[in-house]
Each structure stands twice: as C-alpha cells, then as structure tokens.
Design goal:
six-stranded mixed sheet; three-stranded antiparallel sheet; 2 helices; elongated
C-alpha cells in the first residue's frame, strides 16, 4: 500500500511539472515551411482615474434695490446681483477639460426681462431686468476658491439660449487628495427696474461637458 502511494505521488509531481512547463512555454518554433502557425496575443488597457466634483452652487441673489446683504459675514454688500463662487475639483490622473454652457430663464409667473448687454444706466431701466455673466478659472487652493482668486479666467454672457461656452482645464494630479486641482465659477451682473414682485425670479442652469485631455 505504501509503495502504491509513493508511485501515485511521483506521478502527480511529474504531471504538475509537465503542466508548469507548458504554461511557461510561450515561444513558437516553426520547422516546416509549409505549415500555418497562429498565435494569440492579449492586451493590457492603460486608462486614467477620472474624478471631477462640482459642488452644489448657492442661489444667485437678485438685489434690484441694492439693499445691504451679508452672504459671507462681510457686511456692506449692496451689489444688485450677488453670487458666491462654486468649487470644481479634480482628483483625476489625467488633464480634464470642463466646458460649461450657462443659460438663464425667467421662472414661471415672472415678468423679468433678460438683457443681453450690460446695463449702462440702470436708473433708466423701467421693467424688472437682469444681466448675467459667468466666469470660470483655475484656483490654487480651496481658499482661492472662496475668495474667487482665479487664473486663466474665461467669461461669457448668460443668455436664455445660445450662450457661448466657457472652458476650464485642470491638470492631472496623480490621484491623491493632497494633489487635488481646483477651479471655480461665479456669476456676476446687474438687476434693475421697478415694480419687482415676489414671483420675479430667474432660473440659472449650467450644462457641463467633462472630458479627459488626450496626451501627456
């Protein structure tokens, strides 16, 4: 019985050795010129990590009577249109191109007019009217997002339809949190006119197209 077990063990070792040799024998040798030989080649896919985060924007504040407003504990803000910066961050391992196309429409029941040009003399505007622009750019840190200290800014007038897109490119990061790259966008503009009612609101939308940039 012991002799049979020893023989079975030896056969198993020989079989395992034969299989391992076959697994590593990747070369193909042809000795017959008339034969057809086919080999199979696999592939390795090298793709980036893509992660872009757009924070939830705060509402645009329409302030046609230029009353004091305090959105960030900095008293004395009396602009006729107020907007806080919105952070965009990338933890991608490849450059990312963010293209943003904004639009603005009066809300249901609103009598607001959307101007396509800056209000050169707001005092002469009679109907409730808004003029809106959007600016986007790179920010070195989150603190620069908060203060909207951006570089390479791109700006467009926000129309009801057909706004020109603005573009932000964020460099690759290596994928670690400390290397996260930041950008920010913000709305600016004016509101003017008289007879504003509680229903005179606007809706702002931004369509984002986010794609990796091909190349190093």
């Amino acid at each position: 019985m012991k002799k049979q077990k020893l023989i079975a063990f030896c056969l198993t070792v020989v079989l395992m050795f034969s299989m391992s040799v076959m697994a590593f024998a990747a070369d193909t040798t042809v000795t017959d010129a008339s034969s057809d030989t086919e080999i199979t080649i696999g592939s390795t896919l090298h793709i980036p990590t893509i992660k872009v985060t757009i924070k939830t924007p705060a509402n645009v504040i329409v302030n046609p009577y230029q009353m004091e407003y305090d959105p960030t504990n900095a008293s004395g803000v009396t602009d006729s249109l107020i907007s806080a910066p919105t952070e965009i961050s990338s933890d991608s391992t490849i450059k990312m191109k963010i293209e943003a196309t904004p639009s603005v429409t009066p809300a249901a029941g609103s009598s607001v007019q959307v101007s396509t040009t800056s209000l050169s003399d707001p005092s002469k505007v009679t109907d409730p009217t808004v003029y809106l622009t959007m600016k986007i750019g790179e920010a070195a840190t989150q603190a620069d997002v908060t203060s909207f200290n951006i570089t390479n800014p791109d700006e467009t007038t926000v129309l009801t339809t057909g706004s020109t897109p603005v573009t932000l490119v964020l460099n690759k990061t290596g994928g670690t949190g400390s290397d996260t790259k930041y950008g920010a966008f913000k709305f600016s503009g004016q509101s003017a006119g008289s007879g504003w009612k509680a229903t005179d609101l606007i809706t702002v939308k931004v369509l984002f197209k986010i794609n990796p940039v091909v190349g190093p």
